[in-house]
């Protein structure tokens, strides 16, 4: 294959035309998002000016009022971005409404605290409920109109799927309602695509799923040159490479990759954060902990808490602490198994309720104080289940590079029954780029999934692990062999 076959069909004028269309597309979308932020902030600003600022003992001058309003705008914009509240092109209307309302609710709560401190007594909560009510209407109206406008203005992208290790991307596009965004017009193996790159001509999007690095590099170069958006489902090595440090040596660009080794400063502040907020969490949730303890004890007289051996950093074992949500004899046969969800007969009625909003995890604040866990990190697996996963996927132990957490990347962006292969990749994404900013983003994103039923979806009945639900793999994921390149 020569360079002319790859680059020769795309003219300079084509590139200019597509760049201009892309720029116009981005400007329209950004304008739409700015309108949303301004509308949400305008509701707060109106109530602040007419009802709140006059009640403060030392009234602000005009600049002070603008500062409070700007703080609200900034909070809502950051939270909205954290919850993907403005992704018109990828989210359903209901997802955008939920995310915007959650961002507005948290911003309102924080400004309620600020107002309380300024007034030196509790503000009228009805005013903030009025703000939130108006914002719900704005969220519904904006999301509906923005969604309709976007898909009327921008038709579905002509999409091609290139696969190697795993298939089923077309089914996922249908399952998640992305047909309005991606119109799949064809698919083929990576080897076939390499031989006939012109099959991508006229496409606007290409999905590459489990494609080997050599083939993937050829395809994405072609896509970039022809202004085709590429969506790549990575392999384990790709995710690990995302954490490589860029450096220069011997007058050459070099990527340095090593085992998880965060800076001492990061570890210090992470531990400090864990201790402070675990204590605060225990104090704030103590009434909930007391009520749940009484209900569990009253239901069947069994123990309130449940201890279970789990794995943390470097394979160290510890006992995780949870509220007991299952019958006392849930594993009387001695077999370690994941829950099948709401239909699991082992779960008690009280357990089913506390699982829905993760209340069963509250005792893990004690594990965090002891240092067994952190707030953010890969979720700890049971040794028996981890051993089963490692039989087919030896790389699964790479999750143990970092201390386990109460929440993590795989919990926010995956599900309870996410396959071991995909769970590993999500956790490695977190391990590859440790930072306090990322930890905070995951903590705030966790709030979003608390009331999302699909995030707690169990494994299929009869399964003991999530392994049986893994995507279709063309070759062993535990032995990822890269093709030799010449």
Quote the average pLDDT. 83
Number of DSSP helical runs: 16
What gyration radius follows from the Cα positions, in whole Å?
A: 26 Å
How many distinct domains? 3
Low-pLDDT windows of residues = 1-8, 458-464, 468-486
Structural class of the helix and strand makeup?
A: alpha/beta
Strand order of the largest sheet: 2-1-3-4
Beta percentage is 5-15%
As an assembly, this protein is: single chain
Give the H and E element order: HHHHHEHEHEHEHEEHEEHHEHEHHH
Overall shape: it is globular
* Straight-line N-to-C gap: 13 Å
Count the strands? 10
Question: What is the helical fraction, as a range of percent?
Answer: 40-55%
Describe the sheet with the most strands: 4 strands, parallel
Would you give an account of this structure?
This protein has 486 residues and is an alpha/beta fold. 29% of the residues are buried. Helix 2 (12-52) crosses helix 3 and helix 10 runs antiparallel to helix 12. It has a 4-stranded parallel beta sheet with strand order 2-1-3-4, with helices on both faces. The two termini are 13 Å apart. Mean pLDDT is 83; it is low at 1-8, 458-464 and 468-486. Strand 9, helix 13 (383-392) and strand 10 form a beta-alpha-beta unit. Helices cover 51% and strands 11% of the residues. It has 3 domains: 12-153, no CATH class; 155-233, Response regulator (Rossmann fold), CATH 3.40.50.2300; 265-330 and 337-469, no CATH class.
